[in-house]
Amino acid sequence: MLEIKNMNVHFGVIHALKGISLTVNDGEIVTLIGANGAGKTTTLRTISGLKKPTDGEILLNGRDITHTTAQERVKMGISHAPEGRRVFSTMTVLENLELGAYLRKDKENIPKDLKMVYEHFPILYDRRKQAAGTLSGGEQQMLAIGRALMGRPQILFLDEPSMGLAPLLVQEIFSIIRNINSTGTTILLVEQNASMALQIAHRAYVLETGSITLSGTGAELMQSDDIRKAYLGG
Amino acid sequence: MEQLIQQVVNGISLGSIYALIALGYTMVYGIIKLINFAHGDIYMLGAYIGYFCMTTLHLGFLPSLLIAMVLCTLVGITIEKIAYKPLRNAARIAVLITAIGVSLFIEYGTMFFVGAGVRSYPAMTGLMVQKISLGSTVITMQQILIVAVTVVLMTILQFIVKKTRIGKAMRAVSLDNDAAQLMGINVDTTISFTFALGSALAGAAGILVGVYYNSINPLMGIMPGLKAFVAAVLGGIGIIPGAMIGGYLIGIVEVFVSGYGYSMYRDAVVFAILILILIIKPAGIMGRNTREKV
């Protein structure tokens, strides 16, 4: 579904992504793990069109989208729940969710999808008239994911969905991610919480200072000594 | 007491003008963090367009108002496209300096075409010269007109911002540009639309002030522009209801200062308010102190 070939990204003189290549197949959960500053968020932002790559190719369903705008990519089925949630704080939960469906032409199906999001995240239904900024961190994360789902994505990017959440809530979010995937949405997941991410991922890539150093199935990487030492705490 | 009421009536009329201009400042600031110093000059253009509609074309007030708003909208969009859009990723100071340049360009460009002299709006006739007297308080028809037009425009604005798709896009872009792009919102279109709305309101303010004070000149936008800017900061820059409140407060304060015999100081008082608000509550009346983003 998604294929990145030899993508380079610079911030001024800083070479942030050094020729990375990765593939996400239909129906998979693929995770990108790595330390802080490795370039995980930059990878997602570049694929969503928020950051321009210096060179390389981004293919979605075989089509080159490297030079399209973020808006066009949303239209083509990429949804991105960004790092730090980035909900529209003074707008209500419902307005946030509606914005997730901003480009959709099939307005008649939106209520159905709202219902689907509320089924994944019942708390959002209770809070639908509340300003998003008044939600707790976990609820905001749910809103960010729900908002991304409202675009009916073919592929969903999740950037650090576990960040700043209590352990119990992390469990919950991950089980919801798995549910979302089982209903047919392909997921590219960026996480610092490597053990959780590897547990639910079909495949994984390890990003270190801008280069992909390892890849394999989730189970394989869980067994790898290097990974255990570096990311799983021994 | 009666004088007090009279001053409040006058203050609300003047405040309506400031509020209409302040809305444009605040919306543009909210969305691209630019103090658009050319905004006062759009108001001036609105006054001139209204003048030519009423004199050369012999149109009535309402058609003139609509034409002024439409033309100012076009001017606002054009300025944004030509002057500000190429600087989207430039340092903010570069855009600010450009705004001052645009302002001077409009002022002296207008002077080139219509001359530097003061022009007078045609005298009002019929219903428009009526007055309503309540005791010793006099409310003129022009004042009622100003307030009525302002209220209608603000209601329409609130509706657009709160209920429409493009209004929601505006709020989203002003809250978080990146996240808005991830929703598929076209940021450039949204910014253009914001300039359009602000310019339309400034154009309306221009023709209203022409009707109210009668005389217009190419530099008339400078001082009301600055005062409307103070109003926007006072209410909380970037916050739409804040601009309305700020506009009315500044209008009332100014009228009171002149009404009680200190008209020499009326501009100074407005800018003293700016200094005070920046010291006491920089976020403005409606503003919250912005939290650091995690």
Give the termini distance of chain A in whole angstroms.
34 Å
Extract low-pLDDT stretches of chain A: none
Number of domains of chain B: 1
| Tally of DSSP β-strands of chain B | 4
Which structural class best describes the helix and strand composition of chain A?
Answer: alpha/beta
End-to-end C-alpha gap of chain B:
53 Å
Morphology of chain B: globular
- Percent range for β-strand residues of chain A: 25-35%
Overall pLDDT score of chain A = 93
Main beta sheet of chain B = 2 strands, antiparallel
The helix tally of chain A amounts to 10
Major beta-sheet overview of chain A: 6 strands, mixed
Mean pLDDT of chain B: 93
Oligomer: heterodimer
Helix content of chain A: 25-40%
User: Approximately what portion of the residues of chain B adopt beta-strand conformation?
Assistant: under 5%
Number of extended strands of chain A? 10
Low-confidence runs of chain B: none
| Number of H/I helices of chain B | 11
Helix/strand-derived category of chain B reads mainly alpha
How does this model look, in words?
The complex is a heterodimer of chains A (234) and B (294). Chain A is α/β, with parallel strands linked by helices. Helix content of chain A is 38%, strand content 26%. In chain A, a hairpin with a 2-residue loop joins β1 (2-11) and β2 (14-24). The radius of gyration of chain A is 17 Å and the shape is globular. In chain A, 46% of the residues are buried. Chain B has a two-stranded antiparallel ribbon. A two-stranded antiparallel sheet of chain B has the order 2-3. The longest helix of chain B is centred in the N-terminal third of the chain and has 31 residues, at 2-32. The N and C termini of chain B lie far apart (53 Å). Chain A binds chain B through residues 48-50, 70-71, 74-75, 79-80, 82, 84, 86-91, 95, 98-100, 102-103, 147-148, 151, 164, and chain B through 165, 168-169, 171-172, 175-176, 178-186, 293-294.
